[in-house]
Structures are given as C-alpha cells and as structure tokens.
Amino acid sequence: MNIHILGTGNVARTLAVRLKELGHRVELETRNPEDTLSRTFGDGTVMSDWLKTNDVSLSSFGTTTSEADLLINASNGKGTLEMLHRVGAEALKGKVLLDLSNPLDFSNGMPPTLFVCNDDSLGEQIQREFPDLQVVKSLNTLTAPLMLTPHKLKGDHVVFLSGNHAEAKAKVRAMEESAGWKTENIIDLGDITTARGTEQWLALWVRLYGSSGSALFNLNLVK
Amino acid sequence: MNIHILGTGNVARTLAVRLKELGHRVELETRNPEDTLSRTFGDGTVMSDWLKTNDVSLSSFGTTTSEADLLINASNGKGTLEMLHRVGAEALKGKVLLDLSNPLDFSNGMPPTLFVCNDDSLGEQIQREFPDLQVVKSLNTLTAPLMLTPHKLKGDHVVFLSGNHAEAKAKVRAMEESAGWKTENIIDLGDITTARGTEQWLALWVRLYGSSGSALFNLNLVK
Fold first, then answer.
1. What is the dihedral of CA B46, B47, B51, B54, to 10 degrees?
2. With a cut of 0.85, is the ipTM above it?
3. End-to-end CA distance of chain A
4. N or C: which end of chain A has fewer CB within 10 A?
C-alpha cells in the first residue's frame, strides 16, 4: 500500500520503519518540509538522512494525500484537528484514517489526563469534523514500538477497532494482520463511539506505566 | 475474618456466598432490616430464607460495624457516599473498606458513562469524605461472579489495588489470595488516585460487554 503518515515525530518514524519492512511505500506529511528536513533527533541524526536511509518520502500537508491508500494520524492528540485542517477536508475526502492518537492533556503534570472523555472521544471529534473521512480508531492502546510488532510480547494480546465504516475497518484489520496480529486478537468494538473505551483505557495505561516503569506491555482478554 | 458487606443486592449476595465458602463470618448491613428481610429476588427466594440458608447475618447500617475486620462496599456507586454517611464516620473510623463499586451513570441510556472520572474518582471521593476510613479500591474491574473466583476463567488474569494505606492493601491482598488470586496477579498501582485508572477501565469494559454479549471476561497484562 501507499501509506501516508500525518506527523514526523517518534511515533510516525517508528511506524514508518516497520511499514517499510512490511513492503509498503511510506510518505510522511508535515507542515513545513524545509524545516522538517533539517531537524535533528536526540541521537544526532538529521531528518533528511533518516528519510534517505529508510526510503521514506516527505511532503507538505494535503499536497499528495489523494494518492494515499491509507492515512495514519501519528500526531499529538491535542494538535490533531488543527493538523487535519491543514491537510484539508478536500484532500481527506473518501480516505481511510487510522487514528492512533490519544487525547492526552499534559498541562497539569503527570500522569496526563484526557482532554475529552466519557461522553465523547477524539475519534468522534475527528469523524464529526470531517464527515467524508473514514476514521478507524485503532492501535492507540499500546506504545508505538509495539503497535505493528505484536511478537515482541510473549503470548496473545489484543488491539481494537472502532469506526463507522466496515470497509475502512477491514482495510486497517488487513494491514494489522500483515504486521503479525492474529485476526482473533483484533477486536471490533463497533462504531466510532466505542473509541471512548479505548481512549479511556489510557487512564489505566498511564497507571500501569507508572507502577511498572515500562511501556512494553499490553492487555489480553481472558474468558 | 468477620466481614461486613455494605449492601444487599446481587453483588453483595454473590460475594457473601463465596466468602462463607472461604470460611469467613459474613454480615450484610442495610438501611432497614425489616424491609430487607421480606424482599424477594427474581427467582422468588425471600431474603430471610436466603440469610438462613447461607448463614449470613443482617444488621442496620453502623450498629455492629465496629466488630468487622473488613468492610466491603457493594452498593451502587451513585448511592455510596449517602450509604456510608448512614453507617457513619464514627463507625467507619479506622476500618478498612474494600471499595468495589463503580461511578456508573445510567441516566443517559446504555452503555453507562461515569459520573466522576479523569481528574477524580469515586475511590478518592470516599477517602476525602471519610479520612479515618482506609479505602482500598479493588475488584471493581470485573463482574461479581468472577471477583473472588479467578479460576472460572482460563489462564492468568489480573486485578488491582489502589489505596493510601499499605496495611489496608495488604489485608485486601491476603483476602484475595485466599480466594485464589495469585499474588503476582494482584497489581498494586499505588495511592488512591490510581483508582481513576481502574474506574475508567469500565469505559472499555462496557464496550467489551457490548461487543461480546458476555460479562465473563477479564484482562491480563502481557509483557
């Protein structure tokens, strides 16, 4: 597939490397490509070198989005709606967006709280704001290094799908299966309102991270 | 132990039977014992017969609470604070309360939402309201028939402890272990603020219940 990741941070780059491994064409969309090209990461790597090394393309929001088979929202939840507006409703029309962000609010110290929860979700906010975009909430429930590499943990563990569009969910399911997720471990919770459940899982996730000191865990369902 | 369960509904009675099996003395506290004695359940059983059959005592809130080694909040979350006021701060002084309720709001249809979440929790509300009561949030994350019978599910699965008092948590842990929970499957998340995580788990729990049609599940943590 031709996959466009919206965002250029750690999550975007972690997923990009794995998606290339899986044989996809990968492009990152960003606000200002020139600025992004000269950015350096913690280890000193320059973005332009990273893109070349990993054979990942870079473009400005919305300019090549129409070519993508799948879009991935890898932005910080707080900036998601603004970013999607930069991409533009026209460019997003008819596209499938895998939304793996979380509506985390870090403004009151740690652990973060949620800036939307309970009777709404970020997944629903995106879907209402962009009615022609097919939002699929998935993979927001585990850390980026695990999202497309389930084998890194011992034993079965699960991820979820929430969305209003069956074909869009099927597309995301297929991509996840290609990454190693067993289909019975991808749980379709239902429509986009079920994203309230997976986003609020973060409230427990942050406590598990706090008590264990590690993000390398996931949940399994036991019956 | 001499365990007093606050409440007389399904959850209270399910736990009472199991706690009797485990060898404890069990007493239910209620608002009006006379009214409670004549209540009938869905299957036609009368409460007075049920108490006799199961060798469970019944008393009025707060009258014999001082004798209890452990208190269990098995009331509906919405009624919890009012109920505890009927028991009374004096009777609750120095006691350990296992709080397994959830702050569920059913007033806007199904699935229920939470009437407190994100930056507060029912566990914390109880602790603030009754500073001399040692609140331990635990077992609110799974359905009553599973709370003290972990072997009913196949394989490992986990429960949590949240509370400000180490000895109180140790008491609840010991009781859970006596019911079959492996100590490594009882995860201490930390202080009572961590109850935000386990109460918000309900947002995902209700979606899993909705998509599967069964409450007989729990989560395990995979590393």
1. 60
2. yes
3. 35
4. C
List Cβ neighbours of A126 (8 Å cut-off, separation of 6 or more).
Answer: A73, A80, A81, A84, A97, A99, A133, A135
3-state helix, strand, coil in chain B (%, to 5): 45, 20, 35
Query: Does residue B111 have a cis bond before it (omega within 30 degrees)?
Result: yes
Residue A197 with chain B: CB contacts under 8 Å: 203-208
Task: Tell me the sheet residues that pair with B186.
Answer: B159
A165 within 8 A of A173, measured Cβ to Cβ = no
The per-residue pLDDT for range A70-90, each reduced to its tens digit, is 999 999 999 999 999 999 999
pTM: 0.97
- CB-based contact, A112 to chain B, within 8 Å: no
Phi/psi of residue A188, nearest 5 degrees: -80, 110
Contact assessment for residue B46 and residue B72, using Cβ atoms and an 8 Å cutoff: no
Structure tokens at B36: 């409670």
Q: How many CB pairs under 8 A join A and B?
A: 118
Of B17, B136, B6, which Cα lies nearest the Cα of B64?
B6
What's the sign of the alpha-carbon dihedral A157, A163, A166, A167? negative
Task: Enumerate the β-bridge partners of residue B5.
Answer: B28, B72
Q: What is the DSSP-derived secondary structure letter of residue A66?
A: G
